[in-house]
Amino acid sequence: MTDTASAGRDAPGDGDGGEGSGTPPPSRRGMLSVAAAAGLGLLAGCGEESADSASGAGSQGSRSAKPSPSAAPSKPSPSAAPKPPPELPRGGRELSRYRLVGYCGLPGADALGRLGIGDLDDRVRQIEKTARAYAADREPQPVLELLATVANSSAGPDGSYRSRTSPDTIRRFHDAAKRHRALLLLNIQPGRASVLGEVKALREWLVHPDVGIALDPEWEMGPGEVPGNTYGRTSGKELTDVARHLSGIVAEHDLPQKPLVFHQVAMSVVQDQSALRPQPGVVLIKSADGIGSPGMKRDTWRQLVKNQPEGVHTGFKLFYEEDTEGSRLMTPEEVLALRPRPDYVMFE
Predict the structure, then answer these.
(1) Alpha-carbon gap, residue 309 to 110, rounded angstroms
(2) Nearest to 185 by CA among 57, 285, 91
(3) What is the CA radius of gyration of the chain?
(4) Burial, 110: exposed, middle or buried (Cβ in 10 Å; 0-12, 13-18, 19+)?
(5) Chain centroid to CA 247
(6) How far apart, in whole angstroms, are the C-alpha atoms of residue 148 and residue 214?
(7) Measured distance CA(314)–CA(345) in Å, rounded
(8) Which of 29, 154, 240, 338 has the highest CB neighbour count under 10 A?
(9) Are 253 and 280 in contact (CB under 8 A)?
(10) Is 171 left (phi over 0), alpha (psi -120 to 50) or beta?
């Protein structure tokens, strides 16, 4: 990370260059976890009922048989009325009415965040309570940010340096999100896999109105790079491609706005930011991902939001452990005093 933005992080390489190897990121950042199972299966199909005309039901006569004189003219079924369009978990179709507040994590990998620790429903209730403290002038919207693609330090059978979380685990978290009227964000640490390919593999879930995407481009590796040895990177064009794909899903299924979060730990992690283009139905959120004291985190924030493209919203990440090593966690008042005020506050 550049200058003060790298403080307290021991980042690999120079934060403003993003190239080369160095010491792996410390603590949670150095923790590379394998997901519960590889391979995310897509739904094979959706059952369709045949709609046979039932006029003169029970008769085996020819189609030319006269209808019974007592047969009343058919009336439109009440169920034929158009359904209202899908909404966000707590109503409406635009995210601007909400402050998103969430935990991230993966079951069985405590170092990757609190969402994977303890009883899931208890965790979501904690998120709900935390969200109210950050709502301010908006309504609170709890978020579950589940790691759906996890970067690995070993290549794996396909050489992609990533594992996919099992559909059963994603379904369990989606069910919890529905129970608590929360948003589910599927986080992608792509390793050497294609980012857009990983997003497309999650289509089964993205057709739902309460599921969005979060990208962790510091784990997006180029040829010859290994997760944990250097910061990865993305580009404004690649982020636009992902946003365009999500926009197509939103339009196809008449969905409410869908969040696309990208976490940024250093300036080098998002290159050619000016090429980033917002897409219809997709809310782009850049989440500042620095570690350290409140002063360090504010410096990181100022660097990362400077010259931000128009139409990109902001997010802010807090670390329960790393931020408090020799310092303290920022208060809700301090976070809400940031300008622009974060639309998404996430805890790891």
Answers:
(1) 35
(2) 285
(3) 23
(4) middle
(5) 14
(6) 10
(7) 9
(8) 29
(9) no
(10) alpha
Neighbour count for residue 103 (Cβ, 10 Å)? 23
Type of residue found at 59: S
User: Which parts of the chain have pLDDT scores under 50?
Assistant: 1-71
pTM strictly above 0.70: yes
Q: Which of 205, 186, 101, 87 is nearest to 143 (CA)?
A: 101
Residues 307, 248 contacting (CB under 8 angstroms): no
Distance from C-alpha of 284 to C-alpha of 321, rounded to nearest angstrom: 27
Q: Which fold has domain 107-347?
A: TIM Barrel (3.20.20)
CA separation, residue 316 to residues 45, 62, 230, 241, 313 (Å): 39, 69, 22, 23, 11
Residue written as token pair 């128009």: 310
Amino acid code (one letter) for 226: V
Bridge-partner residues for 161, per DSSP? none
Beta bridge partners of 283: 259
Kindly list the domain boundaries of the chain, sorted by start residue: 107-347
The pair of three-digit structure tokens given for residue 152, joined into one six-digit string: 């690995």
- H/E stretch holding 171: helix 167-179
Selection from 15, 48, 101 nearest residue 303 by Cα: 15
Q: What share of the chain is helix, strand, coil (3-state, %, to 5)?
A: 30, 20, 50
Q: Which two tokens stand for residue 171?
A: 């379904």
Geometric angle at alpha carbon 123, from 122 and 127, rounded to 5°: 120
Residue 31: predicted pLDDT: 41
The model's pLDDT over 55-114, given as tens digits with 9 standing for 90+, comes to 333 333 333 444 444 445 555 555 568 889 999 999 999 999 999 999 999 998 888 889
The type of residue at 270 is V
* Amino acid letter, residue 172: R
